[in-house]
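R.M. (postdoc): so does anyone remember the format we settled on? I'll just put the structure tokens first.
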């Protein structure tokens, strides 16, 4: 794989997480501040967060705070105990597959380890999904993969990381869905957050690696040719290449 120059180092600034999809307005604002604070360790496990203190801190009503807490409880980040308050749970109990939890963790100080953990997950799942897709993909999905790979190639030549990200996410979603395995398909949001996190937090080279782009094109060809072995091998090369990239940019 051709080695590329890493992106120039930028002044470190906290990158705000994208707006939560769990509601809107004040409820979302509380989530977008309290969620990352828990995920980053600002509120360690065992910390008790009292409703009245959260009301005052965020300048919102008790109802808004309780709505946000319910979402965090569903993610297993906190638990509510009567006469105690809202207690932060240990990371081992969190729903680490929730896209918002992934997003918040990638915005925190443990980003490198999180990226490596998630990319290792991709390496275990996506090659198998690609092999299955070679046998189960519909003609429409085959065409979609071909088009997306071509769009990735065009964005790569233009060094347009934003456009590349959009097509890259779509490509991997189609592979996971085309596998015919509903469990793999549900990992589309997880992979999307990993790919987005790499771009938003600048854990990317200055332009997409042409070798990686070519591998995506070849995966699309292998799926269309119903060559399961080739599709699995090529997708594994993509995932292993992403791990090697982390060795350089997020050791």
């Amino acid at each position: 794989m051709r080695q590329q120059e890493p992106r120039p180092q930028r002044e470190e600034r906290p990158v705000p997480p994208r707006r939560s999809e769990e509601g809107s307005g004040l409820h979302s604002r509380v989530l977008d501040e309290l969620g990352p604070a828990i995920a980053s360790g600002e509120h360690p496990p065992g910390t008790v967060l009292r409703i009245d203190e959260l009301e005052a801190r965020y300048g919102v009503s008790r109802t808004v705070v309780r709505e946000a807490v319910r979402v965090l409880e569903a993610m297993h980040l906190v638990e509510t105990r009567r006469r105690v308050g809202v207690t932060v749970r240990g990371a081992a109990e969190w729903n680490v597959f929730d896209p918002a939890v992934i997003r918040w963790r990638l915005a925190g100080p443990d980003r490198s380890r999180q990226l490596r953990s998630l990319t290792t997950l991709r390496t275990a799942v996506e090659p198998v999904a690609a092999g299955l897709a070679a046998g189960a993909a519909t003609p429409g999905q085959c065409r979609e993969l071909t088009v997306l790979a071509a769009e990735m190639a065009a964005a790569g030549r233009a060094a347009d990381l934003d456009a590349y990200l959009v097509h890259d996410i779509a490509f991997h979603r189609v592979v996971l869905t085309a596998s015919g395995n509903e469990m793999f398909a549900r990992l589309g949001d997880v992979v999307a957050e990993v790919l987005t996190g790499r771009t938003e937090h600048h854990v990317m080279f200055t332009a997409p690696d042409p070798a990686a782009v070519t591998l995506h094109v070849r995966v699309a060809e292998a799926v269309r040719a119903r060559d399961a072995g080739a599709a699995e091998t090529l997708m594994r090369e993509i995932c292993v290449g992403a791990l090697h990239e982390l060795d350089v940019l997020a050791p």
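R.M.: ...and that's the designed sequence above, right after the tokens. Also worth knowing: Strands lie at 48-49, 78-81, 85-88. Residues 172 and 188 are 7 Å apart (CA to CA).
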